[in-house]
Amino acid sequence: MKRSWMTIALAASLTLGACSAPESASQARSDKELAALAPLQTSAQGVITGLDIQNDTTLVVSLDINQWLSIEADEDAALEAQALAKWKGVWAKNHPAQHALLHVDFVDYHATPVYAEKAKV
After folding, report:
1. How far apart are CA 59 and CA 83, in angstroms?
2. pTM greater than the 0.70 cutoff
3. Residue 83: which of 101, 114, 59, 55 has the closest Cα?
4. Where are the domains of the chain?
5. CATH number assigned to the domain covering 24-120
6. C-alpha to C-alpha distances, 42 to 16, 21, 45, 105, 108, nearest whole angstrom
7. 14-61 pLDDT per residue, tens
8. Are 83 and 43 in contact (CB under 8 A)?
9. What is the widest separation between alpha-carbon atoms in the chain?
């Protein structure tokens, strides 16, 4: 009886271990980039509700649209410029000697585009 329980326990631990696949290099790089971009979200507390990287070259900035509409035009322009500049710097640091057309998309909670910008690196 002991042996069958040990066999079941071993099989269960092997099964659980197989379920947790190692993180891909691309995912690890995206996580590192998002961590470097986190201060952008902190600096715009309440306005930026999330950040995501798509297709390796697009930074999606999720907004609380009510907060976004309540800030002054020069503040949102500064935030847009800051997001693009920060994304260019973070991307270039994590993709040395590479070039790309980077995108920054600001979206509301329905993923409706609010603002978009692009720049070459």
Report:
1. 9
2. yes
3. 59
4. 24-120
5. 3.30.300
6. 36, 31, 5, 18, 18
7. 455 455 556 788 889 899 999 999 999 888 888 999 999 999 999 999
8. no
9. 74
